[in-house]
Each structure stands twice: as structure tokens, then as C-alpha cells.
Amino acid sequence: MTKSTTKTVTKAAPKESTNAASEFGQIVSKFFDDYQKSTPVKLKAIDAYLGYTFFTGVIQFVYCCLVGTFPFNAFLSGFISCVTSFVLGVSLRLQLNPENKDQFQWSDERAFGDFLFAHFVLHLVVMNFIG
Amino acid sequence: MSNPATQIVDLKSQASVKAIKTLLTIIILTSICILGFSSRLFAVIRFESIIHEFDPWFNFRATKRLTEHGFYEFLNWFDERAWYPLGRIVGGTVYPGLMLTAGLMHSLSNFLGFSVLIKDVCVFTAPLFSGLTALSTYLLTKELWSEGAGLFSAAFISIAPGYISRSVAGSYDNEGIAIFALQFTYFLWIKAMKSGSIMWATFCALSYFYMVSAWGGYVYIINIIPLHIFVLILIGRFNLRHYTAYTTFYTIGQLCAMNIPFVGFQPIRTSEHMASFGVFGFVQVIAFFGYLKHNLGQQKMKRLFWIFSLLVFALGLAAIIFLTASGIVAPWSGRFYSLWDTGYARIHIPIISSVSEHQPTTWTSFFFDLHVLVAVFPAGLWLCVQQYDDARVFLIIYGVFSAYFAGVMVRLMLTLTPIVCILAAIVFSELFNRYVSSSPPPAESEEDESSPNPTEEELAVANQLRSIVCILLVMILFMFGTHCTWVTSNAYSSPSVVLSTQNRDGSRNILDDFREAYYWLRTNTPDDARVMSWWDYGYQIAGMADRSTLVDNNTWNNTHIAMVGKAMASNEDKAYEIMQELNVDYVLVIFGGVIGYSGDDINKFLWMVRIAEGEHPDEIKESNYFTPQGEYKVDSTAPKTFTESLMYKTSFYRFGEVDHGDINGPHGFDRTRNTEIGVKDIKVRGFYLLISHTISKLKHIEEAFTTENWLVRIYKVKPRKNSDGLIFQNIKSKKFKR
């Protein structure tokens, strides 16, 4: 009796795991399909920009790890500039997303204006900190 | 019922009510600002417009350097007249906000044609900024509760003694502008958090930058705001507006903060900033998972998301702990760690525990500084909990943590005062709302059985009760106002540089000994003379006497201070060795025995011994300075190590002759310690007076100056004798006599 139950359990287990893996793969592909179809072009452009800043930041970080941190404030200002641009891009995307209209009480132009203002301040500070 | 005519009248009356409200608000806020300014002027009116205390003298000196030599000279200043022979890198060890603010006001007013002295600008900076603090507190409370509460909070903070103590006219210190920056940053944060606007968050970051430049207490902001976000995440109220506000504030704010030379790379290297960094990462994870959850559907992977986010949180925490343990991230600095472990400083860093402001707070200080507000503020906390929303969670966190920290250290009463003012204002506003309006409060559902329409009698009784309560509240507020003014006048308006006592007929007697001594130093010593004194007086000596000092109030080098302490605690020969090593020309001690001044160096002597013992435990032992019974006394029971120490000798030199005007009374009666001193005849070698207990001599130093009331005593260090031992004698050779 126990043998048969264990047998069924062991038999069922790999099936479930393959099920979970394939389910995960299905979810991921479904996610990408949905993304392609339902996201407006504006948001996709911002997502591309986010990807770009993210990779710039990664490259800077890897470079710093390889070469050393000598002008540390230069590295920090460049890296934090990437991080902040990423974060500001995400915030802009949140505000432009029509699904979040109930959370933000202003127009897209105002959101973009805020974004530009923050970038202006950011680059002033970065220029000062680069040394 | 409402025809167009009444509608128009309603609109008009609404508009006029609004206009009257605005006018009233402006009038009230203006009078609050004027009140706050004038309440801080007691010292200026009684004495003169002078910089008070100790720390402000250094700030004043730095500001003078800024106005005389320009911004870059100030930022790159290396002060070789402090901490001789080490010098001090002022640009990198000072928070420049205060000096820049005063310098800016000075140049602006000179540009507009008002030629104001920099000294006056410095003296009046703090009262000016108290008005701005009241305004920002009004704005903050208005955002969080209502306009009425805002007005109350502005009124409270303009006169609350807890804030006045550090912002009185003449107290030219960082806290004077820092509290304004603190309240304004919090106001902008609440605004940013509620609206989710990048613009407000950027303004908040810029205000935070100003705060970082102004005061070391910015660590408080950079921990409370992430804590607020973290609590919002925990209670499940975190939304995209919070994400926008916090991430923008954190990134731009920290980058701005690193531009201040004193802060440097601390925001990514020290434990004090790790909380904000951790919350930043955690917030990104939460937002990303929220996005995925939103797009993939709630049911499928909800549990997995929670597990994953917990896992990420645990990993982040472990990473931070690992970095701290391995030393890459610096642990909490002693000043902040001693807030958590209160016994730490006394054992490991006696300098921190010796500062009188760092002692634990007694309950009397709470009442003294806050009066009725401290009794009322828990009710405000409760109201916030009862009617909470995202922004009021911030008030709750702020209140609880401020209350804890204020209990640990007297100095932090200052950070408690704003939040207590806000919460007490909320309570008073709610009370007045309830008891002033003549319409009955809405009936609750359980009371449906009682008659819904109150009778005439009940209404009359209710009105009577209401007016009684209102009158009581107004009386309490009157008492609060009186208390605040009394406290300001008696306790917090003393310049510390000038002392005043009252004669028997009530007239004021001014003791100007400190300035007398510093002026003597300024005019009677060479410019490069070096003065050794205890670190308390370093800034004043540098500011008023303009001479090089060995140690001052910055206390950054404990070893150097310990050396000075060792010199003061050792006998004259050993002390002379140390003084020769350090090229000391003059020794300055404060002695209060003639007038009964209790803040003199003999009373501080045990701290000197303790600090010296920390660095030289073999040579200095605290127990050697106590009597055999274990008491600290200066009379005949005092042990030899004490009576032969440099401090004892310099304090009581020639004091045995002093008889306080009463010929038959005891000679050498120390009025501070209320005892006759033990060694009455400390004389220069060669002079002996009355035979007394023991006779000791001053070998290597000689008295240069003692002020009118013996408060400050300056001694000149004699140059080393010639090595061949010849004493210079004025021999006139008979051969050459004409």
C-alpha cells in the first residue's frame, strides 16, 4: 500500500515540477505578448529609455569594479546620475500611464514638466560633484 | 428654497468669509513672527548685542573669514591657530550653512545700502529664522490637519522654551537655522508624498540639502522619512505616489548631500544612512512586483510574490549587516550609538558623556521646556492614530521617536519641541472646534432613544458648559504664555560671556571678567602666543582674544585633549615638560571661589582626570584625587596629588590671602565649594607668609593676570633655565663702574 502511494507521489512530483516550469514559461511569454499589445507607444519609448539608463549604470559599475575607485566622486556622480535618471523615468512612466490616472491629479504635460525640472536640478548637482 | 438672489448672497458671503479668513491668517502669522523675534531679545536689551556662549564664537569667526576673504577662502580654510600644533581643516569639518546664510544676509543688506556689521547679522540670525520656523510649522500642520491647528502650532513654536533655548538673539548656532530647515523639509515631504509630484519631491531634496549644510541632525531626517515609507509598506498603504516622492527625494537628496565637504561620502559608507539606502532598494522591488502583479493577474503568483519580496528584504538586510560587520560600511558613530546604548559613552568616549548637554533628561526639563504642551501631546498622538491617513502616520512616527530621543539626552529636547507643538496644536484646535461652535455635535447612532431635539434648558446648559471649557482653555494658554516668557527671561537669556548677579538692594551687578581677561590677552601678549586652557574656552579665546589655542570645543582629537588634561592633573614639573613640548606660553584657568561661580575648572577637574586617564592610565588615576574617604574635596583633607596638581595651584594661588572683606572670617574660603582650602600658601619661590599647613611653590609659571573677581586667571610659562644652571644676576662689575 505504502509502496504504491510513494510510487504515485514520486511519479506525480516530476510532472508537477515540469508543470510549474512550463507554467512559468507560459506566464513569461504571455507577459511579453500582453506588453507588446497593450502598452501605448509613449510608455514603450520610456521603457526603452529606462533600459538604456539601466545598462549605462551597469556598465559604469562594472568599470569601477575593474579599474578601481580613484576619482570616487566622479564615479559616484556618474552612477547616481544613471540611477536617478532611471528612477525619474519610472516616475514619469507611472504618471503617464492611463491606468494610474486616479492617483495623479494633473495632466501629462505637467508630469513631463516636473520631470524636466528634476533633471535640470540633477544635472546641476552632478556637474558640481564630478569635480 | 434658495432662489438666485440668496444664492448670490451666499456666494458673496462665502467669498467675504474667505477673504476675512485670509486677512486674519496673515495678521495672526505676522504677529506670531514679531512675537517670536521680540521674545528672543532679552539678552540684547539687558546686556548688549554680543555673541553668546562658546560654539557661536567659532561660527562667528568663520563667518568673519567668509565675509572678509570670500567663499572659496572660507571653504578651503586651514586654521593653524586652533589645535596647536595640529591645526584644523575648517572647510572639511564644519557645516557651512549657517555661515553662508549669515554671509548672504550681510552682503544682501550691504548691497541694498544698509551697512550692517557682520556681528549684528550673526546675533540676529536666529530670531529672524524663528519667524520662518513658525511659518513652516504653520504650513506643515495645515497640510496634516487644518488651518486652525496650523495657527496654533505656529504660535506654540514661536514661544516654546525648548526652541528658544537654542535660538535666542546672540546664540549664533546651527540649530537656529536648522530647525527651520527641518520643518520646511518635512512640509515639502508631506506635500510631495500626498501629491506624488516630482516637483515637490525635488524641492524637498533641495530643502534637505540646505538642512544637511546646516546641522548634523540631518541624520534624523534621513532616517525618519525612510521609516515612514517602511511603515506605509508594512501597513499596506504604499502606493505609486509614495514611490515617486521617495525615490526622487532620496536620489537627488543624497547626491546633493554629498556635495558638502564635511559629509563627503558618508551617505553611502556609514550605518546612519544605510536605512534610507535599504528602503530605497526595497521600494524598487515592491514597485516592480506591483507592476508584475498588476499585469499578470492577482491570483496566480500572489503568495510567491510575497515570499519573494520577503526574501529580497532578508537578503538586503543580511547584505547590509555583512557590510557593516566587515567594515566596508562604517558602524554607527559614537555620538549616535550612545543614543541607543546609553552607558556606552561613559566608558568608551568620556568626552561625549562629559558634555553637560548630553546628560539624560529629567522630567522637570520636559515641563520646564514645554509646560502644558507636553501634557497634551499624547492626546494629539491618539487623535492622529484615531483619524489616521498616510501623512499622519508620519506624525505618529516622528512623535514617538522624538519622545524617546528627548528622554536620552537633554540636548535633543530641541528635536522634540516642533512635534510637540504640532500635536498639542491639533489637540487645542479640536477642543476649540468642539466647544466653541454653537451647533450640537452630531448624535451617535446609539443615542437614538434620547430625544433628537434638545430642549431649551439643555441648550442653555450646554452653552454654559461650553463657555466654561473655553474660558479654562484660554486661561491655560495664558499661563503657558506667561511661563514661556518667564523661562526665556530667567533661564535662557544669559550670554554666558557676561555674568550678572543681583545686589542686596536688587540692582544688577555685571561681572565682565571673561572679556576683561580675553582683552588683556589680546593687548598684552604677542600675536603668536599659545594659550593652554580646558577645551570649553577654546572658541572664546580664539574669537575674542585672537590667540592660538591648544584644544577647543570641536573636541575632534581626544588624545590632544587628554594631553592637556594630563598637564592640568600632574604636578608642576611633569606639567612643565608637557607645556614645553607643546610650546605653551600662557595657561588660563577659570576660578569661581571668590564669587561662588559653580562652572569653574576645579568643578570640571574630575572630567579632565577621567579623560587623561583614558589615554594615560598608568600615570593618572582618578582615585588618587579623592580623599581617603572617597570624596572630592579641596580642603585640608585633599590628597597630595590633587594639591600639587597644576590645576589646584593655578586656581588657589594667593587665594589664602583673600578674606572676602571680613577680617575676622576665615581666609581662603572657597565660596563655590563652601570650604576653606587646604593649601593656602602657594607662593612663588622666595616668598613665605603665614605658617600654615603646607607650603608649596610655583616654580615654572608666574601669575600674569587675574581679573577683578578672580574669575579668570592667566599664568605665563617661564622659559627654560639655561642648561648650565646659571641664574641671571644683575651684577654690576665694580671694574666698570664709573
Name the average pLDDT of chain B: 85
In whole angstroms, how far apart are the ends of chain B? 127 Å
Biggest interface, which chains? A-B, 38 and 32 residues
The succession of helices and strands of chain A, N to C, reads HHHH
Compute the number of helices of chain B.
Answer: 30
User: Per DSSP, what share of the residues of chain A sits in E-state strands of 2 or more residues?
Assistant: under 5%
In one word, what is the shape of chain B? Answer: globular
- The helix fraction of chain B, in percent, is 55-70%
Beta content of chain B comes to 5-15%
The radius of gyration computed from the alpha-carbon positions of chain A, rounded to a whole number of angstroms, is 23 Å
Q: Tell how many strands the DSSP assignment of chain B holds.
A: 13
- Provide the CATH topology of the domain at 512-717 in chain B: Rossmann fold
Subcellular location (chain A): Endoplasmic reticulum membrane
Subunit structure (chain A): Component of the oligosaccharyltransferase (OST) complex.
Pathway (chain A): Protein modification; protein glycosylation
Main location (chain A): endoplasmic reticulum
